[in-house]
């Protein structure tokens, strides 16, 4: 007997990213990772982020798609430390179109990436986000992350004119 649940038919399909997806994934990231949202993410989001991960860990680059439209993406990688039996999964980027946030697209992407990490022998998943990114923190806590540790992020703008210190005359 066929399963005809309307909700299932409307759910996005999660699949591995293909090269033709790269421009659209990049543009979704530009839409989501803005300077207003997070200056540090805005500064580090660029086309090289996507192509590097796509070339090195293609099986951990996934998209959510519905009716040939990409709704969101997750980009991950694995880290194996020397002299450690542990393999870590690092969820580097998770982005969902703004108008589709809070409708489980991100949750579906995370669930699939987590499955892929387990398949590769990952024992712990690591994420990082700004300490003031409350929606992301809530999302990850809802999905089982704990042990929240804040870190300090500093910048030095080299294009600003530096004030010269007055020189004392003897």
From TrEMBL:
CDD domains from the UniProt entry: NAT_SF
Under Pfam families, the record lists: Acetyltransf_1
Which PROSITE patterns does the entry link to?
GNAT
Keywords carried by this UniProt record: Acyltransferase, Transferase
Query: Where does the N-acetyltransferase domain lie?
Result: 12-159
User: InterPro entries attached here?
Assistant: Bact_Acetyltransf, GNAT_dom
So which domain of life are we looking at? Bacteria
Q: Mind telling me which PANTHER family this protein's record contains?
A: AMINOALKYLPHOSPHONATE N-ACETYLTRANSFERASE-RELATED-RELATED
This chain's protein is named GNAT family N-acetyltransferase
